[in-house]
Amino acid sequence: MPDPLREDAPEYHVNGAAANRKIRFIDLFCGIGGFRIPFERAGAECVFSSDWDKFSQQTYAANFGEPPHGDITRSPITCGIELVGGNVIGATSL
To answer: Which residues of 42-60 are buried (b: 16+ CB within 10 A; e: fewer)?
Structure first.
């Protein structure tokens, strides 16, 4: 049996309705992007990133072609999601 902590572990598969959906995530306190890389390798999509450090912002922009937003406490993000019976009935995007 392969070691689940190694990078060559077998690919994870999702069954059912969720199998056709792409996972979306936000990368808060992103630094230089160490959290983003494995998520994108797994097929997820980063929809927002934030870090206040100017050197981290420069490196992140060089790594991913887009700078992260600055201090999360000063970002104009509003996101309201309403779930009823597991279905999203209203949401604002980032």
So the answer is: eeeebebbbbebeebbebb
Q: Which fold has domain 22-91?
A: Rossmann fold (3.40.50)
Task: Tokens for 76, please give them.
Answer: 């104009």
Domain parsing of the chain, residue ranges: 22-91
Tally of CA atoms within 13 A in the half-sphere of 69 that contains its CB: 16
Q: What is the pTM of this model?
A: 0.59
Length of the chain: 94
Q: What are phi and psi of 45, to 5 degrees?
A: -120, 125
Q: What are the pLDDT tens digits along the chain (94 aa)?
A: 555 555 666 666 667 666 677 888 988 899 999 999 999 998 899 998 999 999 999 999 999 999 998 887 766 554 544 444 455 545 554 4
- Residue 64's φ and ψ, nearest 5 degrees, are -120, 0
Lookup result for tokens 């997820």:
44
